[in-house]
Structure formats: C-alpha cells, structure tokens
C-alpha cells in the first residue's frame, strides 16, 4: 500500500458478500469516495478474491482505493454459540474494524447492507468503537402494514422489530441510517426520539442509461424484430417467480418469447434445463454476468419486464431500470415493488402467481401498456426519477461530509 495515501484517514467500506447487487453498491460507494477525494478501503471475505470487483480494484492498484480480505474468526469466543446471525455478523464487522484500525486511520465506516447486524445494536452497541459510521438498510419491513404496503402480517415480530429499530438508531457513533424505502423516514420521523441518528431516503440507483433504438438493440442481440419479448433480469433464483412464469407461458396462447438474463443459481439452472423445451417461442437464456452495454440493449429491446417476485418486500433496481426505459412491468402486489408499481402506474399488478393471473397480466402488458403519460401525476413521477446513480452519490456524500 502506498505510504502517502495511507497517511490520510480512510473511509472503510465493509461488505462480506459480493453476490447479487451488493457488489454494485460497493462499487458506487467507492466511485463516490473517489469523486469527492476521499481515500477508501473495501474489506470483504477471502472467498471473494476472484470476484470481478476485487480483481478490478487490485488491477487498478490505486493508492486511494485499497482492498483487504478478512474472514470471520473461526475460534469460538466462548463455549456458548452466538445466539443468531445478527450477533455473528456484528462480531465480524467488529473484527474487521479492530484489524484495520491497527494499520490504518479510519475517519468513517460505510456499511452498504446494515441489515446484517442492525437489530443487535441495542444489545451489543456499535461494532466500530468510537469511529462514526453510516449504514444503508434494505430489509426494514416492520412498518409496512402501518403505511399501506402489502407485506406479511406479523404483529408480534413487527412490534418487536419496531422497538429494536427505535433503540438501534440511538446507537452512539451511528451518524445516519440511509434507507431505499421512502416510507421509512416518514415513519421514523413520528416514532423515534430527537436523540436518534438521522433516517434519510437514498433512492436505490441503477446506472444512468438512455434507451437505445429498439430495432438496433434487437439487431445487436440477434432477436427477431417482429417478436414480443418479456425480460427477466438480474440474479436469477426461484424467488424471481421464474418457475411460475415458465409454467404460465406454456399454457398461454400467443405467448411472448422469454429472455432470462443474469447468472442463475444451481436449482434454477436445473429447472430451466428441464423446462426450456416446453416453451414456444423458444426463450433466450443468457446465464452469465451481463455487461452494461448488453443490459442497455436488453431493456431497450424488450416489450415488458417481469417483477413477479416471491417473498421480496424491498425495492428493486430492475423496477427503476424498466421505468427509465419506459417499459411496462408485471409486478407482484407485495412490498415496495407493488407500492411503486401501483402509485406510478407502471403495469399490471399480480394478486397471486397462478398461471391464470400471470397469463392475464402478460396479455394486458403486451396490449394495453404503457398508458398515456398524463395519467401519472408529477409527484409519483418524481419518486422514481430520483433513482439515478448521480442522486445516490450526492445523497451519500452529503452524509459523509
């Protein structure tokens, strides 16, 4: 590590898991630090050494953008096992801070996914000692029933989590809790004490892209210019509702062609291999990491985007991208995806994942959407127009200053 940069105080970014969209959050936070002139260091687990982001950071070899690998402490702290994952992750983040702060002065810690240990804070305090820190929460759903978002009704669990949340935001050292849920700061404003850390909205970003000419995008992707295409995008797992979607498409007359783009987990890969032949027209399957250029072409080329996710109550960058490219979405009614889709009139809403419901929604999306732009009020437009990478960095840097 270069001595001149290491003499400065660093921003420490801790993210043990670089799967899904988490590595992108890390990359964007590091970009924001670089743009503001803050040297920073990412710490992640050793298993991620071969991931594209660590490889990229290592290859660039910039003194102001460092990376270190720290694994959890395998030695038990006592004869008693840690009571749950919150405790386990709290110990990991604490261990990272202890190790790194011995070799490097840290001005601030940023946690891209604070849900790992957030509910342990009332019991264990800050894992970062006296160092100030900022966390981003993506999974706080305990307040959803109170603000009109459809989520499982778990009154006891939600009441407990609400109390833990109120205590957690009073943890010394926590400067700001950022959330990708626009309803959480409103709830916090009425339910947390004045001594709490700020709870602020940060719009879940997707890289700022302009739509391509659909015909040119289809040509580059080798797609049929006359066919209708439904896109399933991202980290492809069973929770994407992909199994139900494939079964519905096999029963649908005049079905669109399916595009499944993104790395699949093993069970999805197995399912697709066994069921892909039953689809007509034949699907386009890109079971790989998708580059920014291909992503832009996919969203430009498709006719609609699938968001019929199961058990997902948070936000979705895919929803933002569909909105930005003017594509209708077929969305579950649950969580923030349903809340945004309904309020911003983005496409048909699924009340369940039966083949009949999915079939009706696909037909509607392919024939009746998008609606006329004047049907959507400007206040609702503003909600999703803020989900840009520039806005994300600006919000983050305001809290880091």
Structural commentary:
This protein has 401 residues and is of the alpha/beta class. It folds into two domains: 3-203 and 387-400, Rossmann fold (3-Layer(aba) Sandwich); 214-381, Glycogen Phosphorylase B (Rossmann fold), CATH 3.40.50. Helices cover 41% and strands 15% of the residues. It is built from 17 helices and 13 strands. It has helices spanning 3-6, 22-36, 52-60, 85-103, 121-124, 144-147, 155-168, 183-191, 214-221, 242-250, 266-275, 292-301, 317-324, 335-343, 355-368, 378-385, 389-400, and strands at 10-14, 40-44, 65-69, 106-111, 133-137, 174-179, 198-201, 229-233, 257-261, 284-286, 304-307, 329-332, 349-350. Mean pLDDT is 91; it is low at 373-377. One of its GO terms (molecular function) is transferase activity.
């Amino acid at each position: 590590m270069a001595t001149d940069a290491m003499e400065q105080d660093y921003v420490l970014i801790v993210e043990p898991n670089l799967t899904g969209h988490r590595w992108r959050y890390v990359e964007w936070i590091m970009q924001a630090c670089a743009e503001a002139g803050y040297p920073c260091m990412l710490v992640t687990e050793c298993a991620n050494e071969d991931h594209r982001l660590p490889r990229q950071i290592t290859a660039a070899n910039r003194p102001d953008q460092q990376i270190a690998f720290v694994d959890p402490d395998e030695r038990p702290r006592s004869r008693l096992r840690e009571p749950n994952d919150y405790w386990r992750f709290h110990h990991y983040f604490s261990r990272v801070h202890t190790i790194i702060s011995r070799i490097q002065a840290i001005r601030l810690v940023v946690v891209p996914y604070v849900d790992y240990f957030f509910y342990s804070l009332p019991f264990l305090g800050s894992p970062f000692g006296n160092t100030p820190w900022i966390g981003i929460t993506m999974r706080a759903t305990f307040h959803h029933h109170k603000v009109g978002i459809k989520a499982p009704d778990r009154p006891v669990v939600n009441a407990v989590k609400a109390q833990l949340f109120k205590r957690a935001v009073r943890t010394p050292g926590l400067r700001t809790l950022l959330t990708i849920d626009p309803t959480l700061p409103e709830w916090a404003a009425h339910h947390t004490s004045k001594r709490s850390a700020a709870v602020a909205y940060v719009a879940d970003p997707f890289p700022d892209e302009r739509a391509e000419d659909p015909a040119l995008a289809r040509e580059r992707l080798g797609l049929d210019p006359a066919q209708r295409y439904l896109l399933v995008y991202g980290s492809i797992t069973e929770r994407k509702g992909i199994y139900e979607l494939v079964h519905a498409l096999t029963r649908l007359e005049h079905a669109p062609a399916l595009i499944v783009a993104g790395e699949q987990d093993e069970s999805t890969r197995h399912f697709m291999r066994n069921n892909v032949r039953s689809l007509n027209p034949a699907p386009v399957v890109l079971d790989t990491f998708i580059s920014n250029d291909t992503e832009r072409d996919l969203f430009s080329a498709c006719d609609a985007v699938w968001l019929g996710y199961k058990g997902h109550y948070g936000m979705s960058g895919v929803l933002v991208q569909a909105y930005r490219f003017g594509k209708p979405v077929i969305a579950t009614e649950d969580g923030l995806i349903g809340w945004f889709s309904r309020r911003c009139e983005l496409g048909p809403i699924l009340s369940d994942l039966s083949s009949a419901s999915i079939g009706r929604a696909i037909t509607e999306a392919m024939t009746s959407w998008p609606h006329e732009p004047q049907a959507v009020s400007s206040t609702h437009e503003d909600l999703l127009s803020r989900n840009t990478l520039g806005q994300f960095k600006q919000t983050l840097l305001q809290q880091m200053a």
